[in-house]
Amino acid sequence: MSSQSDSAAAELIALASVLYQANHCIIGSTFFLIYDYAITLGREVNLFWTHKYTGASILFFTNRYVTLTWNVMGLAQLAKISEQFYFGLTGVTDPEFGCFASTNLTHDVAVKYVSETS
């Protein structure tokens, strides 16, 4: 029994560690994007906001603000809504694609975790 609980505890610690890394990737990339937007806003105003809308300007605004919205939503997911929905995400740093989150919480650990928090 002790071995099983030690194994579950080790899995939870490993998941928390990877989640911590994923959260830092989300926070870092979002604030880097916001910084980039802040330093290029003047150029954006001069080149796009003061002229007539064209296909290129619509494409520019779509690319710029959909990306910002996506990253801010990534930050919002870090808000702790409840233990059941917050726990179990893991982050991976992929050199080709960057940071992304996935879940690898086993059923047994999830059932134990949910039953302990309920």
Give a structural overview:
It comes from Ganoderma sinense ZZ0214-1. InterPro entries: DUF6533. This is DUF6533 domain-containing protein. A two-stranded antiparallel ribbon has the order 1-2. About 7% of the residues have low confidence. The chain has one domain. The two termini are 22 Å apart. Helix 1 runs antiparallel to helix 2. Strand 1 and strand 2 form a beta hairpin. With 118 residues, the protein is mostly helical. The protein is built from four helices and two strands.
Helix proportion: over 70%
Total DSSP E strands: 2
Determine the N-to-C terminus distance. 22 Å
Profile the largest sheet.
2 strands, antiparallel
Number of helices: 4
Mean pLDDT: 75
Strand order of the largest sheet: 1-2
Overall SS class = mainly alpha
Q: Which radius of gyration do the C-alpha atoms yield?
A: 20 Å
Strand content: 5-15%
Q: Uncertain spans, ≥5 residues at pLDDT below 50?
A: 81-88
Number of domains: 1
Characterize the overall form: elongated
Pfam family, one: DUF6533
Organism: Ganoderma sinense ZZ0214-1
Protein name: DUF6533 domain-containing protein
InterPro entries: DUF6533
